[in-house]
Structures are given as structure tokens and as C-alpha cells.
Amino acid sequence: MVRLGRRAVLGAGLASGVGVLAGCTDNAGPAQPLFNPNDWDSVRAQFPLNAELAHFAAFVLAAHPAPVREAIERHRAGLDADTHGYLRRDTELERQAREAAAAYLGAVPGEIALTDSTTMGMGLLCGGLKLLPGQDVLTTEHDFFGTHEALRLMSERTGAPVRRVALYDDPAAATEGDIVARLRDGIAPRTRVVVITWVHSSTGVRLPVKAIAAMLAEVNAGRDPADRALLWVDGVHGFGAVDTTVTELGCDFLTTGTHKWLFGPRGTGLVWGRAWDAVGPVIPSFSDRGTPGGAATPGGYHSFEHRWALTEAFQFHQSIGRDRIADRIRVQVARLKEGLAGIPTVKLITPMDPALSAGLVMCSLAGMSPGVAVRRLRDEHRIVASVTPYDDPFLRFGPSIVTTPEQVDQAVQAVAALR
């Protein structure tokens, strides 16, 4: 009941903001309907996405919902009208964005560094990591190029070895026990950092981060604090799609962009950490250097109107209810996987187990490359999908709050029609 009340209050506030936008005719474009966060049609109506398409690749780079667009335009207009005067609000507006992020993460605002992307966050951590002689870093074969490259550069700088382990051979057959055991077997006596990705953008496998954190707690039980194995998580494809907090995850650092499943302002992200003493600042900060997150936030002039609009992005998500959003995604993903699994020409790559997947669903088609499938799905069926950007590419779908169960059925029918 409390969450529903909070959702209603936030929704009312957002609705009033959208109502203001709807009343503007000079610059705001088409009027937006009032926002009812309890109505999925109303949620989808806040996005300016082409209604003739089913958007199963919206997670790649977010479209801005109406409250976020309005906030960006409001800040942009303020900067354009009186740049020096409006820029004096930076401290206040950045504080509000950090507080909104902390409320969503279940964290303390001072633990959060603001960035432009997941890759920037990982670069900041790797660039500032303090390592002792003989310590190493463990990661996996399944992580994104940006993570592997950041770790390679860190290794060049420090001389610390970076090792990789495969957590599964067949993603569809992955199990929690096997994933945790394989990672445990890869940890050496002087492993200082374990770097993993929450949801693999190559296969859709969602790692059991909480179980991995529990395993690392056992490993760390007999270690000195300076040798404790830290858990770093690239969380971008779980953040905004899975209903959990950083406390529940149990990791030491979480890097994420906020312009994917959260549908926040493009070019924004964050790093949350509880072990900032292990990482030094990399870029001089213009933020509150009295907090570890502030000190780690890169300085310089940014796209301020986007960063400041993070507050509305988190409020929009919270007003709908992160539990309802996660359930909406889970229902569509299950429907999509079941439908694809029933097509003789399709091989499902993502696990059927809902505990080992989130919003991403990958598959391959017999006799057809994923690139051709993406083109034909769009041209012939108005279904927008994507190709995984890896050496072994797959056809990828991402059901979210901008898609519907009915569109999932349409996507399954379209894939079945591909010959």
C-alpha cells in the first residue's frame, strides 16, 4: 500500500509536468496525454516512438519519455537564456540527481559517481584501481569489449595479470551452480578484483550476482582487507529491468548507463561503490569532493541538461513501480522465449530459466544470418530487433515497457514466417 501511494504521488507530479508540456505549442511539438503510471498504454504514450513499429531494440539507446524530454528542454532553455546564472544551479541539480539515483539503488548519495556511460564508469574504476604487487584481476570470456579493453589498459599500466574464465559452454543450458563453481575455481590467492556482467548482451544470460557475492564472502573470510577480492559488476542490462537494490546484489561496485532500460537521458550513467578506498580519482572533479562518489565524478563541462534530467528519469520509473516494470518485462520475455522455442527453425540461446535471464532474448535461425533476419523483420513485419555485436552474432530482442504482450506474439509470428 505504501508503494502504491508513493507511485500515485510521483505519478501526479509527473502528470502535472506533462500537462505543462501539453500546454506549450511553440517548441514542445505535439501535445502529450496526461500520464497515468498505472496504465501501460499511458506509459507507452509518453514515448515519441514510431507507433507503426514494434520496438524490441529500444534498450540499445533510450528514447526519452515525456517527463525526461520536458526536463531536458527546461534546463536547456535556462542555459540558453542565462548560461552563467542557470549554471549556478549545477550543485543543487546534481545533488537532486544523485539523491534520486540513491533512492532507486537503495544507496547513499555520496557513494555515487555520475558518468556518461557504463564504459566510462568501468574506465574510471580500472584507471584508478590500487593494486599491490602480486595481485591479479579475474573476469570472464562473456564480458563486453569495453570491459575487456579497460582491463587490458589497466594491466598495461600496473603490470597486474588479467585472467578470464568461461562460466558456461552452452548459454541455454547454464545453471547457477555451474556458474558460481567455475568462477570460484578461477579465483587465485591474490585475486583482488572479480569483474562480471550482470546480464550478458551476447547471450542474455543473467548471472546470479547475489550467489556470486556470497561465494566471494566465503573466499574473503580469511583474507586481509587489502587482499579482499572485490566484486565489480557491469549492470547496464539489469539496471532498470530487474527489481533489486545494490544491497541485495551484494557487489562492491556497480557501473551502468542510465540510458538503456531506465530510459534516462542519453549520455548519462553512474558508478555506485562501497569500496572507494580501493580506487583513486582519475579525472579532476568539479563535484563535491568531500564524498567518494563526488570525488570520482569526472569534472569538466558536460551535457548538463541531460545529467540534470536524471531526476525525472528515476521519478518516472519509480512512479510506475520498479516491481511492476520488472514483472512486465518478465512476462513478455517468458512469452517470447516460449514462442521462439516452438519454431523448428529457431535455436534459443538465452536460458528458459527466468532466474538466469532478464530482458534480453537471443536466438539463431537455421540458414539465415541475424543481420538478414533483422532487416527482413523490420521491412516485412515492422518488428525492430538487433544483432549482438560479438564474433558469434545472434538475433536479439528486448521486450520492455514500450512493447506489449501482443507485440511479442507478432514478433514470434514474424520470426516463424522467415524462410
Largest sheet: 7 strands, mixed
First and last CA, distance: 50 Å
Class of secondary structure makeup: alpha/beta
The succession of helices and strands, N to C, reads HHEHHHEHEHEHEHEHEEHHHHEEHEEEH
- Which CATH top level class of the largest domain fits? Alpha Beta
User: How much helix, percentage-wise, in residues?
Assistant: 40-55%
Account of the protein in words:
The protein has 419 residues and is α/β, with parallel strands linked by helices. Helices cover 44% and strands 12% of the residues. The protein is built from 16 helices and 13 strands. It has helices at residues 2-23, 40-45, 66-81, 83-87, 90-105, 118-128, 145-158, 176-186, 209-220, 246-249, 292-296, 304-308, 310-320, 322-341, 370-381, 405-417, and strands spanning 54-55, 112-115, 136-140, 162-165, 191-197, 230-234, 253-257, 269-273, 346-348, 361-365, 383-384, 386-387, 395-397. The longest helix has 22 residues, at 2-23. It starts with a helix and ends with a helix. 47% of the residues are buried.
Topology:
Layout: H1 2-23, H2 40-45, E1 54-55, H3 66-81, H4 83-87, H5 90-105, E2 112-115, H6 118-128, E3 136-140, H7 145-158, E4 162-165, H8 176-186, E5 191-197, H9 209-220, E6 230-234, H10 246-249, E7 253-257, E8 269-273, H11 292-296, H12 304-308, H13 310-320, H14 322-341, E9 346-348, E10 361-365, H15 370-381, E11 383-384, E12 386-387, E13 395-397, H16 405-417
Parallel strand pairs: 1-11, 3-4, 3-5, 5-6, 6-7
Antiparallel strand pairs: 2-8, 7-8, 9-10, 10-13, 12-13
